[in-house]
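Comment on this:
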Amino acid sequence: MNKIVIVTGASRGIGKEIAKELAIKGYTVVANYNKSENQIKELQKELSEKNVNIDIFKADISKRSEAKELVKYVLEKYNKIDILINNAGISQIKEFTQITDEDWNNMINVNLNSVFYMTQEVIPNMIHNKKGCIINMSSIWGQIGASCESHYSVSKAGIDAMTKSLAKELGPSNIRVNSIAPGIIDTEMNKHLSLEELEYIKEEIPLQRIGKVNDIEKCAEWLIEDDYITGQIISINGGWSI
């Protein structure tokens, strides 16, 4: 297969699942992390025990210089980038009037600017090769907004807008750009929710369950393999947003 994939924020949650499954299926995966070195090395060890290799690279991609270094590393080692999965992100629950400039800037830098930097850095190689696939990790809140998560919702809505714009701009170069917008997924990011809150959410979801990381991974794999899908925001939320 020899397809080169960058997965940002790959040390845990959705990013970890995507990186792991793609590596197992034969993709050459470069898994980006920033602070969670122990977790990413555990993933690397887990896969090595199955005779599966995964490359890891530390970079704070909310900074242009480090995003550039990550892409430079991949191109120097593998000569191309076929797939970029922009998964890195943070969340924060805070009333709008309590959000500080630091909160706002940090959210936009990590969730939105990182997508801008990484995408802008990989595009020249994809254009040169006349092919590419970019998958952005959005959120249900980017579509319908979340109370006490305005800055998070804005960052994800920005990702969706960028996805649609780039799909139009890059389509003639055979580069596809899509977003996945998960609902509530069973990851560390949602561990703050109590059992009572989770049960209440389940009652609001037509399929009556919280999503799993492999629900998202399967969609990412589909978006990689299907070469006629672009500019789409794929909602995976059990019908919650209906």
